């Protein structure tokens, strides 16, 4: 997407020949096929390939059909960007993938802001002026909206990156009168874009309007994301993905680049649809999340409060292995702790051993397990877990009543019954797995001192059928596999 923004910067200068429009249409088809492929782990590789092919067609077409001022500089920029992208992709750990995605979203937003400001400073070079060398009315609206959406995407993604990487608390930061501040700021941004659009010749005040829109948009991006808690962060990542698409689409209209419009619209709409689906799965209000935690309780959450010391049962790898061998049906619930420990491969090995002993094994994936949509699916696919063994919450939740063992590894919030019983909890209303209905529960976590990302204690720790396995997830599963062998 960023390449599309940068490569389209001269699109309005010479116009597009008919074959170029056909090439952009073909690129759009590949982007649609990419989204279709990425909807399932089984076809995700093909989806990625289609996305790469589509972007290559779009960038190559733009470079060929436009009078680029310095093609050497463009080539060097693409080469350096490609090297950085490949290096980061090869070295990044799966546990850091969510913040990497948020970081990439911020770059897309920043690129939209830079291109928008460049078009404002030198509109003639972008072909968006009239006979009097004034920026066209429609271009003023597109330019202002593109800068605003891009700035919101950038600053919001920075906050998401800080929260996801642990450099900033995942708990909601609730400012006094935050809804009034947010609505007032958004209204001011739209009003200034409107004033700028109808200004006859801009004048001295034009510069102040664009700068003010940019600054306020950066500010509202921060304000919209800081009130959103850790349990909702996967929705935030999806939402920011949507914002980045709309920012690119707005710049596509400004630059007259069909590929950017198509790509931006696809990314924006698919991100919005995914956000809505995830909100429905979490019993969250879509408007609530995109409005920056609108309606959230100012005093919700138990993070930072002293926890009551309650009795619990602690077991060993040998205890878990013995009970697993006696089971007929085991449901494994992975979470972010599995990702941190990089335990997905040894977990698959454990499931293979159990299946060799005639035990039915299934994996239960919550829509918001991890730090981004599909995080657990990606990890299990990386470990070569068969797709037909992986089930979403609505497909497997009823099976816990017939399960002999619920094996929880690194998950917390997605199995916390407080979501169903405690109206003061920050995760109240979020559908969770009914692990309390299983005959036996094994819960792997590092220590009893930690809580989930939402910062609340979990009653599952203290149930009669729960045995806590306090250790590094990978080490514990390795010991269980040895005991099974």
Automatic annotation (TrEMBL):
Subcellular location: Cell inner membrane
Residue spans crossing the bilayer: 20-38, 50-68, 74-93, 100-121, 141-162, 174-196, 208-228, 259-279
Transmembrane is among the record's keywords: yes
Catalyzed reactions: NAD(+) + NADPH + H(+)(in) = NADH + NADP(+) + H(+)(out)
Domain of life: Bacteria
Pfam assignment, any one: PNTB
Gene Ontology MF terms in the entry: NADP binding; proton-translocating NAD(P)+ transhydrogenase activity
E.C. no: 7.1.1.1
Entry GO terms, CC: plasma membrane
UniProt keyword list: Cell inner membrane, Cell membrane, Membrane, NAD, NADP, Translocase, Transmembrane, Transmembrane helix
NADP transhydrogenase beta-like domain boundaries: 22-482
Membrane topology: Multi-pass membrane protein
Record's subunit section: Complex of an alpha and a beta chain; in Rhodospirillum, the alpha chain seems to be made of two subunits.
UniProt function note: The transhydrogenation between NADH and NADP is coupled to respiration and ATP hydrolysis and functions as a proton pump across the membrane.
Family indicated by similarity: Belongs to the PNT beta subunit family.
Designated name of the protein: NAD(P) transhydrogenase subunit beta
């Amino acid at each position: 997407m960023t390449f599309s923004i940068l490569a389209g910067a001269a699109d309005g200068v010479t116009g597009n020949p008919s074959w170029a429009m056909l090439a952009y249409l073909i690129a759009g088809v590949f982007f649609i096929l990419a989204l279709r492929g990425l909807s399932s782990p089984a076809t995700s590789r093909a989806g990625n390939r289609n996305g790469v092919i589509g972007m290559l067609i779009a960038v190559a077409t733009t470079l060929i059909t436009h009078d680029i001022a310095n093609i050497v500089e463009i080539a060097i920029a693409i080469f350096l960007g490609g090297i950085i992208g490949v290096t980061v992709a090869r070295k990044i750990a799966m546990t850091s993938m969510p913040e990497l995605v948020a970081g990439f979203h911020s770059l897309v937003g920043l690129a939209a802001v830079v291109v928008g400001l460049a078009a404002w400073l030198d509109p003639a070079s972008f072909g968006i002026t009239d006979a009097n060398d004034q920026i066209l009315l429609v271009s003023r609206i597109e330019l202002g909206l593109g800068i605003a959406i891009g700035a919101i995407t950038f600053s919001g993604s920075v906050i998401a990156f800080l929260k996801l990487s642990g450099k900033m608390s995942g708990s909601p930061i609730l400012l006094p009168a935050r809804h009034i501040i947010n609505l007032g700021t958004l209204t001011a941004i739209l009003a200034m874009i409107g004033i700028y659009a109808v200004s006859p010749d801009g004048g001295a005040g034009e510069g102040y309007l664009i700068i003010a829109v940019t600054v306020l948009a950066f500010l509202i991006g921060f304000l919209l994301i800081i009130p959103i808690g850790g349990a909702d962060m996967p929705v935030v990542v999806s939402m920011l993905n949507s914002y980045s698409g709309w920012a690119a689409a707005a710049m596509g209209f400004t630059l007259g680049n069909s590929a950017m419009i198509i790509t931006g619209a696809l990314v924006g709409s698919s991100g919005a649809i995914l956000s809505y689906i995830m909100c429905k799965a979490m019993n969250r209000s879509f408007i609530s999340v995109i409005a920056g935690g609108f309606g959230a309780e100012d005093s919700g959450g138990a993070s930072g409060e002293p926890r009551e010391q309650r009795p619990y049962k602690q077991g060993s790898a040998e205890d878990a292995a013995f009970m697993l061998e006696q089971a007929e049906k085991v449901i494994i619930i992975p979470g972010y702790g599995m990702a941190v420990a990089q335990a997905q491969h040894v977990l698959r090995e454990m499931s293979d051993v159990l299946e060799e002993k005639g035990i039915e094994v299934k994996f239960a994936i919550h829509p918001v397990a991890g730090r981004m949509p599909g995080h657990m699916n990606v990890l299990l696919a990386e470990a070569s877990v068969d797709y037909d063994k992986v089930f979403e919450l609505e497909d497997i939740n009823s099976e816990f009543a017939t399960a002999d063992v619920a094996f929880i590894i690194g998950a917390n919030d997605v199995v916390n019954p407080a979501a169903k019983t405690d109206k003061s909890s920050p995760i109240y209303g979020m559908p969770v797995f009914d692990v309390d209905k299983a005959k036996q529960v094994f819960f792997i976590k590092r220590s009893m001192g930690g809580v989930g990302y939402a910062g609340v204690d979990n009653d599952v720790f203290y149930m009669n059928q729960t045995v806590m396995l306090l250790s590094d997830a990978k080490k514990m599963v390795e010991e269980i596999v040895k005991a099974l062998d």
